[in-house]
Amino acid sequence: MWDDVLRAFCLMLVIEGIIPFLYPQRWRRAVATLALIDDRRLRFIGLGSMLVGAGVLWLLR
Question: Would you put residue 37 in left (φ > 0), alpha (ψ -120 to 50) or beta?
Answer without folding.
Answer: beta
